[in-house]
């Protein structure tokens, strides 16, 4: 109760002011909540946002790894003592190892990729999900989001605009609620 959360308008103004100050200081945004000098972006976080493979090894760790034609969601046991006992017993403590459905994969790739200021390349989206952007999302919905100033697209990529990044949950929900052909 000691923290006063700003209203939406004040929060948006603070977001924009932070971006402007950091950009002026040579630390442009490369993701919704991260800024860095060019070339100094977090490779660790970029792996998540670009939906690349990563291993979850320690207690409670999550991973995403492509095996054959499927991307698997993995999770290690959370409790350190149980995790260690299982590693000693069987060499690992993987509690979950399930292939992601195409819909779950599309959802993750778009949700993470649109966090990046550069967005998602069409090539990377299709390579990771197995479906082109045009087949994943309703063209009329994409056009409405572009017209409203929340998305930008060209032959190479789809990205959230600064206004779209401030409303990213709603942008992603709109994309996912109207898949292509619906």
Q: How confident overall, as mean pLDDT?
A: 94
Q: Main beta sheet: strand number and arrangement?
A: 3 strands, antiparallel
Shape field: globular
Oligomeric state of the chains present here: single chain
Task: Report the helical percentage.
Answer: 40-55%
Strand order of the largest sheet: 3-4-5
Indicate the proportion of strand residues: 15-25%
Radius of gyration: 19 Å
Uncertain residue segments: none
Q: Kindly name the structural category.
A: alpha+beta
Distance between the termini: 45 Å
Alpha plus pi helix count: 9
Query: What string, H for helix and E for strand, traces the elements in order?
Result: HEEHEEHEHEHHHEEHH
Beta strands, count: 8
Quick recap of the structure?
46% of the residues lie in helices and 18% in strands.
Please describe what this structure looks like.
- With 182 residues, this protein is α+β, with helices and mostly antiparallel strands.
- 46% of the residues lie in helices and 18% in strands.
- The protein has nine helices and eight strands.
- The protein has a three-stranded antiparallel beta sheet with strand order 3-4-5, with no helix packed on it.
- A hairpin with a 2-residue loop joins strand 3 and strand 4 (70-76).
- The chain starts with 7 loop residues before the first helix and ends in a 5-residue tail after the last helix.
